[in-house]
Design goal:
Elements: H1 13-21, E1 27-28, E2 42-47, H2 53-65, E3 69-74, H3 84-91, H4 113-119, E4 123-129, H5 131-139, H6 145-152, E5 160-164, H7 168-172, H8 174-185, E6 189-190, E7 194-197, E8 203-207, H9 211-222, E9 231-236, E10 241-244, E11 247-249, H10 256-267, E12 271-276, E13 288-291, H11 295-306, E14 311-314, E15 321-323, E16 344-346, H12 350-356, H13 358-361, E17 366-373, H14 377-388, E18 392-397, H15 398-401, E19 406-413, E20 416-424, H16 425-440
Parallel strand pairs: 1-20, 2-3, 2-4, 4-5, 5-6, 9-12, 9-14, 12-13, 14-17, 17-18
Antiparallel strand pairs: 7-8, 10-11, 15-16, 18-19, 19-20
Helix pairs in contact: 2-3, 2-9, 4-6, 5-8, 10-16
The structure holds cytidine-5'-triphosphate.
């Protein structure tokens, strides 16, 4: 039997082999595919005029790091903010700025850069896309290379994504909003804007998204939509159970796995709500996040939303017990050396409660549990799956993964167990999402 990841479950190789041998239907999964997400994609990155051009340099690097090849096209206004030299150095390709440029493009010598550059693109991304350029696109104007190329692109095969960037008043102006809505109904994908301090000194909506956020959007754009139409509810992180106003009980869960699962589900086209315990992590793009503190808060947030969900993924490391009567004031030492007496009550099991709901029982809500164990992973995960009455239980070794960027998983269902070898949490989350999609929509 092939054993992958000798230290996955903290066992010796022979003990691991024995455990796995006892599972007749155990199947190891192929090693995780860690190719960069945009491997093989060719992106035409268009820059129109705006101060956010400085972010386009970082975006270009990020796209290349993610495996894409990048062809930069700039308008004359963009050249006022950043030079083609910078963009050529970062993209490793000559930059095109003029429709009268006679150099060969896309391997063709026909002096038609506007045709050739768009034909070889997997997507055209305009970042930054100024208010003026949005208006231009809307009207189908074609008086410079970038607008000409956008108009000449084969609409059915070359998607157009735009990252608006402008002053907040320009952004909320009815003309801009009308133009964005129309561009969207013409088939373009508008990637949204950030909010905050602007170069003009004002504060509000209209900043171009950060390079990392744009990269997340592009990766999501290219991900097959295996969870389209699904409403996915995810719990993540630890919970915090107060002892008094300044102390409490929690655990070492960082929330990284749950956040990765939420991101992967959104990439796969689901409408995602993430109920997060106290963690210090940025919210993945395009999801609804609800922050909670205690297990009771998490239960309430989940029960309020479980009814409209079609998939529930319980990744949170929910505290099993909470102090029975938390003090409203800080508990003080009285000098006697006596320790306080704490009584505990058990927290309600959120996953088991959701799994008992009518929707889950009727097969309308697919429930996935996690098991954080310190030993006997396979046995504990199987027991937990039956006890919580869920179709899929994902086991992992808590002490090996809490706070880390990598993990290894053991998927346990009615057919047996499948091992997902150690990989980045996001890679594993994407594999898990595929597994869930295959169970919801069997081929
Ligand atoms: N879980 C939950 N509500 C709880 C406790 C656990 O929803 N009050 C969920 C977790 O999110 C996870 C699964 O149940 O999906 C298993 O959690 P885990 O902490 O591994 O196990 P416990 O049920 O707490 O059992 P034990 O502590 O005995 O291992």
């Amino acid at each position: 039997m092939l054993i992958i990841g000798a230290d996955l479950f903290g066992r010796t190789r022979s003990a691991q082999t024995d455990t796995l041998r006892s599972m007749t239907s155990f199947s190891p999964m192929a090693p995780a595919d860690e190719l960069p997400e945009l491997n093989g994609k060719h992106i035409v990155l268009g820059l129109s005029g705006g101060i956010a051009c400085y972010k386009a340099a970082e975006l270009c690097r990020a796209l290349i790091k993610a495996g894409a090849s990048v062809q930069v096209v700039m308008t004359e206004s963009a050249e006022q903010f950043i030079t083609p030299v910078t963009m050529q150095a970062l993209s490793g390709r000559p930059v095109f700025t003029s429709q009268w440029d006679t150099r060969a493009s896309g391997g063709q010598d026909n002096n038609m850069a506007h045709i050739n550059l768009s034909r070889e693109a997997d997507a055209i991304l305009i970042a930054p896309c100024s208010a003026d350029f949005i208006a231009k696109l809307l009207h189908g104007r074609a008086d410079d290379l970038l607008s000409l190329m956008c108009l000449a692109r084969p609409v059915a095969t070359v998607p157009l994504l735009i990252a608006p960037a402008m002053n907040r008043e320009m952004y909320v102006h009815p003309a801009t909003q009308r133009n964005l809505a129309q561009l969207q109904s013409d088939g373009a994908t508008v990637l949204g804007v950030g909010s905050g301090f602007q170069a003009c000194g004002e504060t509000g909506d209209g900043r171009m998204l950060e390079p990392g956020e744009l990269l997340e959007e592009i990766i999501a754009f290219f991900t097959p939509k295996s969870l389209a139409g699904q409403r996915v509810l995810v719990t993540a992180g630890p919970t915090y159970e107060a002892i008094d106003p300044v102390r409490g009980i929690t655990n070492l869960s960082s929330g990284k796995m749950g956040f990765a699962v939420a991101r992967a589900a959104r990439e796969a086209g689901a409408d995602v709500t993430l109920v997060a315990g106290p963690v210090n992590l940025p919210t993945p793009r395009g999801i609804t996040r609800i922050d909670v503190k205690s297990a009771s808060d998490m239960l309430e947030a989940v029960m309020n939303r479980a009814q409209r969900a079609t998939v529930f993924i319980a990744n949170a490391a929910v505290a099993d017990w909470r102090p029975d009567a938390p003090s409203t004031q800080k508990i003080k030492k009285d000098g006697s050396g006596q320790t306080p007496q704490l009584d505990f009550v058990e927290n309600q099991d959120i996953l088991a409660t959701v799994a008992q709901s009518a929707a889950a029982q009727r097969g309308k809500l697919f429930c996935v549990g996690f098991a954080a164990e310190s030993h006997n992973l396979l046995e504990n995960a199987q027991t937990k799956r039956s006890r919580k009455n869920v179709p899929l239980l994902v086991g992992n070794i808590g002490p090996d993964t809490f706070g880390q960027d990598h993990n290894a998983l053991l998927l346990v269902d009615s057919k047996g167990a499948t091992e997902m070898p150690r990989a980045a949490k996001l890679t594993l989350a994407r594999q898990l999402v595929k597994e869930i999609a295959a169970r919801i929509n069997p081929p």
